[in-house]
Amino acid sequence: MNKTFDRTSSILFALIGALFVAESRNISTSAYGSEVGPNLFPMGLGIILILLSLRLFWETFRYRESVTSAVVLRHKRFLLMLLATVLYAWFLEDIGYVISTFFFLLAGFRLMGSASWWKSAAVALAFSGGVYAVYVHILKGTLPGFPTWLGL
Amino acid sequence: MEALQYLADGFTIALQWHNLVYAFVGVLIGTSVGVLPGIGPMSGVALLLPVTASLTNGLSPEQAAASALILLAGVYYGAMYGGSTTSILLNTPGESSSVVTTLDGYQMARQGRAGAALSIAAIGSFVAGIVALVALVFLAQPLSEVALTFGPAEYFSLMILGLCAVSGLGGKSMTKALIMTVFGLLLATIGIDNVSGVARFTYDIPDLYQGLEFLTIAVGLFALGEVFKTILEADGTEAQLIKVDRILPTKADLKRSAAPIARGSLLGFFIGLLPGAGATLASFFSYIVEKKVSRQPERFGKGAIEGVAAPESANNAASGGAMIPLLTLGIPGSGTTAILMGALLMYNVQPGPLLFSDHPQVAWGLIASMFIGNVMLLILNLPLVKVFAKIIETPPQYLIPLIIAISVFGVYAVQISTFDLMLLIACGVAGYLLAKNDFPLAPLVLGLVLGPMIENNMRRALTTSNGDFLIFLQKPLSAIFLACALLWLVVPMILKLRGRQVVVNEEA
Question: Taking CB atoms and an 8 Å cutoff, what residues of chain B touch A100?
Fold first, then answer.
C-alpha cells in the first residue's frame, strides 16, 4: 500500500465530503408535502464520507508500507497517450469523426510501438472510415461529419 | 407450471433472428474480450454498452432493451468463459475469477493436455449455466412476488444491505470500499432532484443538470482505466503460448470431472445469489471443496482436471445466480450486474419485482436467451478454441489505441457531448489511480446506480413517517435487512482483528 496516496486521497475525499455538506445547506430543506427535503441525503452522505476519510487517514499510521514492486512505469508514453486522447476528444466536433479518429489512431499506434507507418495508417483508416460508414450511413446515427471548409 | 409458459414466451422472443444474432455476437465478443489480456467481463460489458445502445436504435424501447440485454449478458458469460483460456494457456488469468484455474489448468497445458482442460472448462461452464438458469426460472417469479410486498422502508434497507455486502467483501480495505460506495452515492445526487425538481450541485453548468451519466463513468473507470494501466505498466515481453493439440477430453477425464462440475455449479449458484460474493469467491470455494473431497488431494496443483472443472463451473454458475437479485429485487450484487442494471435503466426498464409483470418480454427473453447463449458458447468454443487462442496474440500496439477509440466512439454516440468525453478521460485516469491503490471500483458504480433509488425510497419512507427515522427499525423486515447489513460489515472486521485471513472478492 502507498501511504502518500492514501493520505492525499483521504484528505481529498474529506474535502469532497465537506463540499457536499456545505453546498447542501443551500438546497431547500423541505419539499412540498414532506418534511424531508432534497438536502438531507447528500448532507448525510457528506458527513459519512468525512468520517470514513478520517478513519482512512488514521489507518495510514497503522500499517507498514509494502515494498513497491519493481515495475518500471512508462510515464512518458502514458502522458503522450493521454495528451493524444484529450486532443482527440477536444477536436472531435471541430474536425469531424473520421479525420480526428484517423490521426488519433495513427499517433496511438506509433506511440505504442508499431513499427510501420503504412500498416498503422491502413488500420487507422479502416477503423475510422469503417465505423463512420456503418454507423452514420447504415445505422443512421449521428457523428460529426467532415468539416465544412473541406468542401465535401 | 406458469413459469414454463412464460419461459416458452421468452423463447419465442429469444429465437427471433435478430436476437439470435445479438446473442451470437455477444458471446463471440465476450469470449474474445475475456481472452484478451487486460479487459475483463466488467470492462467488456461497459465498453459494449454504448455500442449496443446505438445498434438497437431503430427498435421499439421494449425490443431494444431485450436485444441489448441479450447481447450484454452474452458478453458477460462469454467473458467469464474466455478468461479461463488465458489462465490455461498462458498462466495469466484474464479476470480474477479465473485465478484458481491457473493452478491446475496451466499444469495440464504443460503436460500437453491443454485441449482437454479448455474443453472441460467449456463443458463445465455450460452445465453450470444451465443449472443456474433452471434455478432462475423457478425462483424468479416467487421471489419477485415476495418483493412486491416491500414498501419503501424495506427497499431502502434492502439496498443498504446490498451496498454493505459489496463493500464488506469489496477489496483489501473495507474503509476504502465504503468510501467508494459513499462517493458513488454522492455523485448520483448531482443533477436535478427527481422528487422536488431542485437542481443540486449543478452550478448552472447545463451538462450537469441531467446528472453525471452512468455510462460515461463506467466506461471511463473500467475500460479506460485498464487501458491506461496497460500503457503505463506493460513491459512488452511476450509470454510463451502453449499450443493446443487434441481438443476433446478423454472418457476418463469426463468421468472424473462429472461430480466436480455438479458440485461447482450448485455451490457457485448459491454463492452468486448472495450480494457481494461473486464469481471469484465461488471459484475459490469450489476449488477448496474439491481438494477436501478428493481422495488424492496431492494431485491438485499438478494438473488435476477436477481443479479446472469445479472452479470454472462455479464461476459461471455464480454469474447466473447473480442475475437473480438483479432481476427480481432490482439490486445488483457485483460490478458487472450493476452495469447491466445501468443498461436496463437506460432503456427505461426498471429491474425489480415489477419487471416480470411490466416487461415480461425483457425478463423472460433474457432468461431464455441465456439458455441459447450457453448452447452457443459450447458450440462456438469447442471447435474454435484454437482460433480464440490466436486472439491472445493480437499485437497490443494496435489493441490499446483501438480500445480508446471504441470508448470515445461509444460515449460520444450516446451522449453527443464533448463534456462527457472529458469526463470519460478523467474517469479513466481516476480509475487507474484508484484501482492501483486498492480502492475497489465496483462499489462506486453500484452506489452510482443505486443512489437515486435509495434516496427516493428513503424519502418516501420518511414522508410517511413524518420524518421519523425509526420507521426503518419498526418495520420488521426492514430491521432484519439492516441487521444483516451491519453483520456483513462487522463480521469480517472481527475476523480480521482475530488475525484470520478473510477471502475478499476482487472485481468481477
Answer: none
